[in-house]
Specification:
The chain has helices at 2-30, 67-78, 135-157, 176-184, 190-196, and strands at 47-54, 61-65, 84-85, 94-101, 106-112, 117-121, 128-132, 163-166, 212-215. It is an alpha+beta fold and 223 residues long.
Length: 223
Amino acid sequence: MKTHVLFSLALCCAFAPVVAQAETIAKYLENLPLGTPLHGLPSTNSVVKYERFNQYMNEWKWLAVSKTDGDTVLACLYENHKFGYYTEKSSARALHFRYILENGSTNVLQLSSDGAKYDRHVPGFCLLFGLAIPDAEREILSQLFTTWHEADIRQITSQPLPCQYHVCSNKCGDTLSDIARLFYGDATKWPLIWESNKTAIPNPDIIRHGQIITIPKLETTPP
């Protein structure tokens, strides 16, 4: 009994700083004047360039984002002191978005691809936490991110086969069937992809995030 009491006290002591910090952050959020950007987000007219990270292709790189789209993202996030805490685990992949200011500084934001979550540090605190984006802004971001995603899919599938594919998204292919549907329009063609990647994929039911696999050309049988 004594051991249980001591353990409970130790547990409370361990979590006390975290709880206190969360309460301090909550008070910080409540006291911000309306319209104040929580993480120092700039006004859109001070941004000279927007980019998003392409995680689909073998070559990882930043892709240009139009001024209109970039301004939309910042506008949706600007009053994020009104956002709540994100407590649910998101199954959406992370979407990395960055802006470059007139002074040359580069800032990277991390959002969920469904527009529901925004991960950032609170000024003055060494704590990364998730902000739940309100429904109105979430809908705008979700539609915008879907447009970007569809453009990426078109870019991927327009490649001449064989080509390489970077496995990373639960929206466009985290199973061989999904990938076969993506490239061939037929999920049942997945064994062709597996045959070309057996060394990297011993078990066709398990493919890893970050793998780069070969998509073979679909041979047509003459009539």
